[in-house]
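step 3/5: co-fold with cytidine-5'-triphosphate
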Amino acid sequence: MRILITAGPTREYLDDVRYLSNGSSGRMGYAIAEAAREAGWEVVLVSGPVELPAPLGCEFHQVTTTAQMKDACERLFPSCEGVIATAAVCDYRPVARVTGKMKKTGGSIVVEMIETDDVLAGLGQMKGERWVLGFALEAQNPRENALQKLRRKNCDWIILNNPSAIGSEKNSVELISSDGETVAQWAGAKTRIAASLVKWIGRNSASRNFAEEG
Ligand code: CTP
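step 4/5: write tokens
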């Protein structure tokens, strides 16, 4: 099995030195990449800037902005059987990037922002026979929002987690299938969740058989 994984944050630049981003450590995606390698899968990892070393044995693609992540993923996805999208992608970017460094004005400033492209939704549109697994980071109405996200991005499964996962070594997740069923739940170290997820995908991705599991 050859799979694509997105991981880490993206950055959107205001000028040549300042950017908007988030506190994603990349740990969940990197842990899944390592677990998948240990299972003998080929792993293509597209990662935003994180402090972790690139996992050994993976085909590694470093990106910075959301547009770069989208380009890399759309180029690499056709050679893979599925994608696991753990990246914490910036949803907005400044309309214009100032060349050089913005000067202080002495007053307040307003930065106009527009939505970035949705990497996962793009992969969902082009998936064909491939499977697509997204992550949903939800603070309110978690199940309802996660399921809406799954449908909007044409995912086969979505993993629901909450904002406390960002930057943490632990997570607590629910794996939801496209018919809205919770097919697995895992809590604890991200490395252990990653191993359970890889095992689950190994058993269920070919048949897309959403068997109930604790
Ligand atoms: N995602 C993506 N590209 C984006 C935004 C999100 O590929 N521009 C992916 C994430 O990697 C994740 C899933 O979509 O797998 C859901 O991300 P999340 O941040 O939970 O949701 P958003 O789509 O950003 O929606 P909202 O912020 O409104 O909850």
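step 5/5: annotate
The CA atoms of residues 82 and 131 lie 4 Å apart.
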